[in-house]
Amino acid sequence: MNDPLAVIAQFPGVAEAVDEARQAVDRLYRHRVLRRASPAVSTESSLRGARASAALEGVDVPLDSLRRDEVHDPVVQGALRASAELGRMGPTWRKAPRQVLARLHAVAAAGLAPEDALGRPRATEEAPDPLGLGPAPSAADASVRIESLFSLLEQPTKAPALVLASVVHAELVVLRPFGTADGVVARSAARLTLVEYGLDPKSLVVVEAGHLELPYGEALRAYLSGSPEGVAQWVQHCASAVVLGVRETTAICEAMQRG
C-alpha cells in the first residue's frame, strides 16, 4: 500500500528527531507527580498551550491574566475553547476528521467570523496571512488538498504519530481552509493527533509553547517548498517543539511537587 507518511519518516534527520522527541515524552511520563496529578498537569498544559497558540496568532497575554479570567480577546478565547474541546473529540478524530475540524473552527472562530461561516470551508479566495506564508491556495485547491489529508488520516501508516501530526499541522496552516482561526485549529488538530495516535495519550506536552519558542514561520515556509529537505526541516521543527513542550510540562510537575 502507498504510504506517503512512511516516506517522510525516512527523510534525512527525521528518524533521529522523532526518536529524541519520543524519548523526551517517555521520560516525562515517568515523573513521580504524574502518578497522582496527571489530570491537573493536563489541565495546566491545556491552558499554557492555548496561551501559546494565541501568541502565535499575534495575541500574547500573560498566563496569570488568563488564570484570573481577565482576557476577553476573541483570539485568546477561541484558543481556550478549542483547547477545552479536545478532550471530547478523541475517538471521533480517527473516524470523522471533517466533523472534528468543523467543530474546532466553530469554537475557535466564534467572535471572529460571521455565525453562518463557523465550521464551514471558506468560499472566498482571501485568507489572512499572519505568518507571511504568501497567498493562500484557492478555495477549490484547498478543498482538494483537505480531502487528501482526510485520506491520510483514515489509512494505515507505519509512520510515527509525530510525522502524521506534523503533516496535519502544516497542511491546515498552509491551506487556511476556513479563512479565520486556521492556526488555532491546526495546532489543536496536531495536539489531538499526538494524543490519539499514541505519542502523548494524556495530553501533557505543551507542544504549542515549543512552537512559540522556535522559528515557526520559517519552518512552515520550508515545508511549503515541497522539497524533501524542506518537509524534513518542518518535521524536525515539530520534534523540537515536543522536546521543548516536555521541558515546559516538567516545570509544571516540579512546581506541583514543591507544592
Explained architecture:
By secondary structure, this protein is mainly α. The protein has one domain (4-115, 139-258): Fido-like domain (Fic-like fold, Orthogonal Bundle). The chain is 67% helix and 0% strand. The protein is built from 13 helices and no strands. Helix 9 crosses helix 13. The longest helix is centred in the C-terminal third of the chain and has 31 residues, at 228-258. The model has no long low-confidence stretch (mean pLDDT 95). Residues 96-237 form the Fido domain.
Mean pLDDT: 95
CATH topology: Fic-like fold
| Major sheet | none
In N-to-C order, the SSE pattern is: HHHHHHHHHHHHH
Instruction: Just give the CATH class.
Output: Mainly Alpha
How many structural domains are formed by the residues?
A: 1
Number of helices: 13
Shape: globular
Strand content: under 5%
Rounded Rg: 17 Å
How many strand units? 0
Quick gist of this model?
This protein is an all-alpha fold and about 260 residues long.
List the helices and strands and how they pair.
Layout lengths: L3 H6 L4 H16 L4 H23 L6 H5 L6 H12 L4 H6 L1 H12 L30 H16 L6 H15 L6 H15 L10 H7 L2 H9 L3 H31 L1
InterPro entries: Fido, Fido-like_dom_sf
Organism: Nonomuraea maritima
Protein name: Fido domain-containing protein
